[in-house]
Design a protein that fits this description.
This protein is mainly alpha-helical and 506 residues long. It has a two-stranded antiparallel sheet with strand order 1-2. The longest helix has 34 residues. The N and C termini lie far apart (56 Å).
Length: 506
Amino acid sequence: MTDIMTALGNVFTIGNLAGLIFGTGAGILIGAMPGLSVNMGIALLFPLTFAFQGVGGILMLLGIYCGAIYGGSISAILLKTPGTPASVATTLDGYPMATKLKQPGRALGLSTFGSTFGGVFSAICLIIFSPLLASVALKFSKPEYFALAVFGLSIITSVSSGSIVKGLLGGFIGLFIATIGIDNLSGSMRFTFGTTYMLGGISFVPILIGLFAFSQVLQSVEDCYKEKHVKTDVKISRVFPTWDDIKRVFVTVLRSSIIGTFIGCVPGTGGDIASFVSYDQAKRWSKYKDNFGNGEPEGIVAPEAGNNSVSGGAMIPMLTLGIPGDGATAIMLGALMVQGMQPGPLLFKEQASSVYAIFIGLLLANIVMGVMGFSLIRVFVKVVNIPKEILLPVIFTLTFVGAYAYNNSMIDVFVMVACGILGYFMNKTEFSMSAIVIGIILGSLAETNFRGALTMSDGKFSIFFTHPICAVFLALAAISLLSPVIGPVIRKMFGKKLINRSDEEE
């Protein structure tokens, strides 16, 4: 109880609440603008976290995370251009309601309702189930932690566009970066090339900004010459759903929230899968099957509740085991580590008040997101129309400022630019930048516990197979490596079929 009261005191301060509200608003704006992403938003604004004390910076990132997922539905409904991949399914009924039925306010209100409900539901699940899983994980020793890290590394194939080779290459790059600096066990220097800058390893923040923000700026500059800026000019009337709409979609919202939370708990999945599965199940069980694709309310709330409920679900393995659920939580995991928090079962024991602050922050971020969505939607709609010619120079400047401000070092700026150029070409060749981040984050954990486990067993590798939990995680890692084969099948079943059907109906 003392930890909970401390967490409440930490969250409900003027500075921390302001950070959470700012992060949520910024996340909605970033998600609403096509071409920008959740990952980019977190990476770009991450340096601002150092301006906050305690958990304030983490609360801001939680706001960005929740807000950006929801924000993608705004452009999906108004422009049929999803701001984020997780909002693709929302276009199937959101855009027809906004255009054919001429009810953009109703469509945006339903998406806000579904997003808020899904986010709050998943946050409650996080609060209930995380401590239970952490209490079990407290029994882990070095072999289990190594196997856990291997399992975490295995999800790089799931976030790598379906290519095992590309995922592994990205992961190896991350693992190599993780080995740079002084060896924690032997004290020897590795890959420092005689420079003092690399004794402590390469700073994580410049890498993060370069891979996800600077590279996106380069890609967006190129896109500006290929694509014509599309504007929307709609009049938003009533936004808050009617009581009849709420009664009509409530069961669908609840079902989709459960689906999204469960999918979020599975490392390597994400909001795009959750949204399509939720949409498919909504259509299967709906009384209004024939209306889907023509502006059906259930077809709007289902994908939005599904993709927003992924946020809490994905944070369950991240906080309890230190395993990111998707690319966004991989960045969040790194952000927590930079802030001095090591996600895992010991976090619940050593920094319980901070954990409860994250719980409260995620719940509050979703509530703030809903309030902003219903009250400020007209403002967010106008932001969608901002030309990239104005937006990109601002983001470009922020990448340099953020990279330099972290350590007041120009070397960090050079690292950021180099990683940005690398990220740009990786994007072109469909390599996953999230794989690099996962490799950097989990590389040290895997190495330290691997060597520690061998020390415990006098150099016998059998220790990794005689411990049951360890063997289970290694088996799960092997299964996870096959996910690029399973993932496209799911997307093909629930995604392509629905999109083609929608196109035929039009």
